[in-house]
What does this fold into?
Amino acid sequence: MSYPPAYPPAPAPANKPRFVFAFLPGPTYGLHFFPSANLPFFFGARLKHSPWALGFQFTVSVGFAERYLSGLLTHRYHVTGLTSFGARGRGFASVGGGFAVRFFSPMVEAEGRVGLRFGSRRRGIVAGMVRLGYDFAHREGAPVPQVGVVVGICTF
It folds into this structure.
């Protein structure tokens, strides 16, 4: 009796790249006791064969969490990566870096978020945020941290 030849298992379907959008607003606290309101918008794409999405994040921050009076209105430009993790994909993380501008005073920044995805399609996000910025125009002695909370959506 002849058996049919053994074939290797079919490859898993590739994780197709697709557009990813995230809106992750929330308050941020810095050196001043009044917070800033952050409105970050992420536009990117899921990477092939990877659990990450890579893209551009534009943020408008209004408030007192920035270091100087010129920080009442700050706009940020970061290259950011988003991912989900955990057994059921309920974890959320993002990491990014770039620059920020307060009027004409530039800063270099790094930012990270860790939190949970919720909802039936896991589009809701609740996370904590940490940002570390260095204002080289004012020759600060050390980078200044900011912390915050994020509640938003992500089509990841």
The domain at 19-154 is CATH 2.40.160.20 (Porin). The CA atoms of residues 108 and 114 lie 21 Å apart. The mean pLDDT is 87.
